[in-house]
Design brief:
mainly alpha; 3 helices; electron transport
Length: about 110
């Protein structure tokens, strides 16, 4: 069985510096999320909104720095499939919340 060896020059967009930047950003966002949840600086819906924003930024950091999905011509199909996955996930989540809300209103609110 022949093994192919890849050289780092085959993937110029993959660098240790890029991984370190992504790691530092991920750690900062994680610490910020824990701080927002435990410090009491945000209350109620503001806490949920702050955590949702931090989570969305965290997802973007992971996609860009670790999955290397971008808008370049070579990554167009990957970016399109990722966008489709996000769209379908949002539709699924919104539909589930909508159904559960209606079930609650029709059965439990009496």
């Amino acid at each position: 069985m022949a093994h192919t060896h890849t050289n780092s020059s085959d993937f110029p967009h993959v660098t240790v510096r890029g991984y370190l930047i992504g790691f530092v950003l991920a750690v900062v966002l994680t610490v910020a999320s824990f701080w927002a949840a435990t410090s009491g600086a945000f209350k109620g819906e503001n806490a949920i909104l702050a955590l949702a924003v931090l989570a969305a930024v965290q997802v973007i950091v992971h996609v860009v720095f670790f999955l290397h999905v971008n808008a370049s011509k070579g990554q167009r199909w990957h970016a399109m499939s990722f966008a489709y996955t996000i769209l379908m996930s949002l539709i699924l989540i919104a539909g589930t919340v909508w159904v559960m809300h209606n079930v609650h209103m029709l059965m439990m609110a009496r």
